[in-house]
Amino acid sequence: MLILLLLNILACGFWWWVALSWAAGSRKMPDLVSLPDPVTGEFPVLSVVIPARDEADSLGPALSSVLDSIPSNAEVILVNDRSSDSTGELAMTMARGDARIRVLNVADLPAGWIGKTYAMQIGADASKGEWLLFTDADVHFETGCIERALNFAVCEGMDHLVVAPELRTRGFWEKVFVSCFVVILLTWLRGWRVNDQASKSFLGTGAFNLVRKEAYHRAGEHHALSDEVIDDLVLGRNLRRTGSFQRVVGGRGSLWVRWNAGLRGLIKGVEKNAYAGFGYNPLRAAGGCIALLTAALVPFLTPILHAAFGWPWAGWAALTGLAAWPAFGLIYRQAGRHTDVPWLFFPTFPLGAILQVAAIIRSAAAYHIYGGVRWKGTVYGDHGKGL
Q: Which pTM value belongs to this model?
């Protein structure tokens, strides 16, 4: 059928464009671990701001890794955001053992703020550093890697450095979901173009947003994104729009995080973000889901169904779909810089796409059922516009 052939041609061309563009862009994206050792001498003062809500299970090892990774003159500001577990007590215990740690406690959330954005804003307000590192309470750092990143940013004259963390997984379903998510996210944002300063592409990550304080002020701080649930990406967008020199490097071998445990945890974990990515617009979300399923399923299913049922009229369409498979292999090889998933998982992309669509539908349904974004026990009816 002509329509099936055209769909396969479009899908094949699109995925080869993604694969080749990503491969070319990756040459401009070194891994943090491969950068030169920090120069000797005094570093500018760095303030690491860590918002934490109910993170008692992960906070201890993660915070210890931060302390092993920062310059000697840095400070760590941990903001306990209305935790109901022992996060606050654990943070205070660690602060008594290390003078570099300061703990701020949030008891009430002002109107118009998301809990995390408010925590980061008051952490930034209390900071002494010329540079700010916004990170999460479950990110693990290798010794000295934050110092190395700061050295790189200062020496290159940057305003904003993003280090893409290694997303670690356990089991088949986590690998399927996480690898597919990384492919979709970086394809959507054209992440391989961020290091091209002539590009409008941007990036940000909750695991590692290193920002020069002057640029942070210029971008409106977190006041400008007080009600945004995808604050890390919107911060990257705002910095780019206000003229900041932004770069991204790979974090494999330097920092890692296990995003969420199990497939159910991963789907629930994107509940607050997935619909926001479409600006809370049901038509945009529906169109995105249809486009994703078409681009993901057609190149894989057409050759398989042709082989299984011997449809003679689908021969050319099947051949065109099959021609896209090496592109997926190349894409998964690039995505593997940010996960622990081997490139041979590329045949699972259609399955991953179906799971992503299920997560988007769940996110949209929850948004309309609860009248806002539900996250960690709070429903945020007042929120930003997303992306």
A: 0.89
177-208 pLDDT per residue, tens: 999 999 999 998 888 888 888 888 899 999 99
| Residue 40: exposure state from Cβ atoms within 10 A (0-12, 13-18, ≥19) | exposed
Rounded Cα gap, residues 280 and 272, in angstroms: 11
Give the span between the Cα atoms of 39 and 312, in whole angstroms: 65
Among residues 333, 21, 338, 33, the alpha carbon closest in space to that of 196 is found at 21
CA distance 328 to 354: 16
The answer, yes or no, to whether residue 384 has pLDDT greater than 60, is: no
Q: Which residues contact 315 (CB under 8 A, 6 or more apart)?
A: 306
DSSP 345: G
Q: Name the residue among 48, 235, 250, 61 with its Cα closest to residue 134.
A: 48
Mean pLDDT for the stretch of residues 351-369: 93
Q: Give the start-end residues of each E strand in 255-305.
A: 255-257
